[in-house]
Amino acid sequence: MDNTNGPSSGVGVLDKAALVLSALEAGPATLAGLVTATGLARPTAHRLAVALEHHRMVARDMQGRFVLGPRLSELAAAAGEDRLLAMAGPVLTHLRDVTGESAQLYRRQGDMRICVAAAERLSGLRDTVPVGSTLPMKAGSAAQVLMAWEEPERLHRGLQGARFTATALSGVRRRGWAQSIGEREPGVASVSAPVRGPSNRVVAAVSVSGPIERLTRHPGRMHAQAVLDAAARLTESLRRNG
Description:
Layout: H1 12-24, H2 31-38, H3 42-54, E1 58-60, E2 66-68, H4 70-79, H5 81-99, E3 102-109, E4 112-119, E5 134-136, H6 141-148, H7 152-159, H8 166-175, E6 178-181, E7 188-196, E8 202-211, H9 212-215, H10 219-241
Antiparallel strand pairs: 1-2, 3-4, 3-8, 4-5, 6-7, 7-8
Helix pairs in contact: 1-3, 5-10, 6-8
């Protein structure tokens, strides 16, 4: 008999899926374990677990047991985006004022990255990236940062056709920041550092960008510390509120 503990939403299949996810919150479970924990019929528990696996909300461990899937941590990171954006304004403004260059915050969205916040240089030649702009994950220091800490399979896929190499990303992980010179756009240089969520996963990249004439061909020497400080402030904000 189905377990009806907890309030019903009136949408039976969602209530049962929620039972499966709640059961897995306690740790890995075999199908028999799911049946016991949820009170669902064995075919129903199996059908729901496999369907949730298709959507990456459920996965399997090395023993073939059901576990909570990676999509849930991605959704949790997205839920933290409001906190991230609330803090991003003052942090990016300070970064712009300290460096004299345009500052941006990027999040990964599939095979693209999206600018979710920006503080533009007030005058003169500048690199303008409007909020909402989508840019490829194949070039630029922010793309390097968002790619560098990915799991190996996704990193390998992402490097296909990229303007940067696995060796370059190894350097990014070692230093903790990335730079690019004319990689995304001719004449533009940038420096980026990772923003991490409460689980230490990279959830965003904070950047400064501008013409090579000002940033030189070694932009990290000029601005890496300021970008790292900005990333640390945003990371601390997410962890404090996580």
